[in-house]
Amino acid sequence: MITSTQNLKIKKINQLLSKSKIRKKERLFIVEGKKIIDEINCSRIWEIYISNTFLEKHESYVNKLYKSNIQVEIVSDNVMKHISSSVTPQGIIGLIKIVDTQVSTIINNNPFIIMLENIQDPGNLGTIIRTADAVKASGIILSKGSVDVFNPKVVRATMGSIFRVPIIQDRNLIDDISKLRKNNVEILASHLKGSTNIYNCDLTRGICVLIGNEGNGLTEQIANLADKNIKIPMIGESESLNAGVATSIIAYESLRQRNYK
Q1: What structural domains does the chain harbor?
Q2: Measured between alpha carbons, how far is 241 from 246 in angstroms, rounded to an integer?
Q3: 105-148 residue pLDDT tens
C-alpha cells in the first residue's frame, strides 16, 4: 500500500492532473470514479489506484480488475484525498492512455462535425462533448490554443462521453477546413452576423459547424473560410449565447432534420 504523498507515482498523478504538457508527454490522463472506469476498454487503462476504504467495500470488484490484468495500486485514504480532484473522493482513479484520432476517420457519410476555435472554458467543452455524444456527432475538432480536452474538469464534465466521441485537438483549422471541403463537407460558421437562420438551413448534408471563443466568437480569418454564416434567432435582448448552448441548439436542429423530418 502506498502511504506517502511523496511517492514518485503519486507525484506523477498530481502532475497529470495539473499540467497539460505532462499529459501530452506521457500520453496519459486521469479519470475518477467507478462508473466512468467501467465504461473504458481495458486496453486503454494504464493503471488504477484504489483507496483502502474502497477495497474494503468492493473487494470482489477489485479482484475482477486483477483478473483483467490491469495494474492496480492500493493507496491510503489520505493519499487518495491528495490525488483526487473531487471534493468527496470516490476512492478509485484511473490513468488512461490517450489515443490519437485522424480527421480522415470522422469524414463519414453525411458527417456532422463540430469545429471549435479557442474554446477556453472546461465546462463549455464538457457540455459540447456530451451534446456531440447525445446526437451521435461524427467528431469534434479543436484548434490550437483551446482548453486541453484531457483537463480533469473537462473529463469530469463529459460524464463519460469523452470515450464515445472522436476528438482531435491542437489543430490548424485552416488546413482542416480545406481537407473537409475537398471531401464535400459544407462549412457553416455560427456567427452573430450570420445571414441564414438555422431553421431555414439544410443541415441534412455533410456539414462542419464552426463555434468560436466564448468572449470573442470566431476570428475573422476562420469565419471568412465558411461557405455560409448561420445564426440562431434571438427575439429577446440577449446579445449572444453560451458556446455550449449554441452548439447544442444547432446539433439538435441537425438531428431533427436528419431523423425527425
Answers
A1: 8-97 (3.30.1330.30), 103-259 (3.40.1280.10)
A2: 6
A3: 999 889 999 999 999 999 999 999 999 999 999 999 999 999 99
